[in-house]
Fold this sequence. Notes:
Structural class of chain B: mainly beta
Distance between the termini of chain B: 38 Å
Shape of chain B: globular
Helix content of chain B: under 10%
Radius of gyration of chain B: 13 Å
Number of strands of chain B: 9
Oligomer: heterodimer
Distance between the termini of chain A: 33 Å
Number of helices of chain A: 0
Strand content of chain A: over 45%
Order of helices and strands of chain B: EEEEEEEEE
Strand order of the largest sheet of chain B: 1-9-8-3-4
Helix content of chain A: under 10%
Number of helices of chain B: 0
Largest sheet of chain A: 7 strands, mixed
Strand content of chain B: over 45%
Largest sheet of chain B: 5 strands, mixed
Radius of gyration of chain A: 13 Å
Amino acid sequence: DTGVSQDPRHKITKRGQNVTFRCDPISEHNRLYWYRQTLGQGPEFLTYFQNEAQLEKSRLLSDRFSAERPKGSFSTLEIQRTEQGDSAMYLCASSLRQGGSPLHFGNGTRLTVT
Amino acid sequence: LAKTTQPISMDSYEGQEVNITCSHNNIATNDYITWYQQFPSQGPRFIIQGYKTKVTNEVASLFIPADRKSSTLSLPRVSLSDTAVYYCLPGGSSNTGKLIFGQGTTLQVKP
């Protein structure tokens, strides 16, 4: 399978714990995106990378959130000191850099904070 | 970044043609218009993309008027499996890769 893969698919954690998610994009894609989605809402932009550079980060992303893409391939999203409001689906997508290149999404990591 | 407006929900019956219109009044000159489909517990999936006039592929058609301030996704002869949320997403022209989703249109296909 050469699509975008995300790991884990589901994560249940207790409030205050740290969690880390991984995304493996399509190999030739140099852009990688993270989105968050809650029930009934569209995906909410968090951040995106072009190769290893994090080019934009949503103001909605508090200091507890950090994302990396160290070698321009896979990416990790870490949430520190999780809160119940962090419960959501975290989606990763990748694309080519060319204008209008469509996003290819993974199936997300479902986070539940208890 | 262009803001989009779509109907929140639509109902249809199997076999009918469904048209979903999206408004994007402040679309940038070089933005493309891309439509995605999303099923529960899955990421959005690319359906179709266009810049102007009409584009057709094996699953849908996309109509874009000359002023490009709106676009219409047309799904021919829908089936129950087309029940999903549909998003339009203008973008791709600016230096920023930031792409903003709206709330989408929930299409319910009934037997």
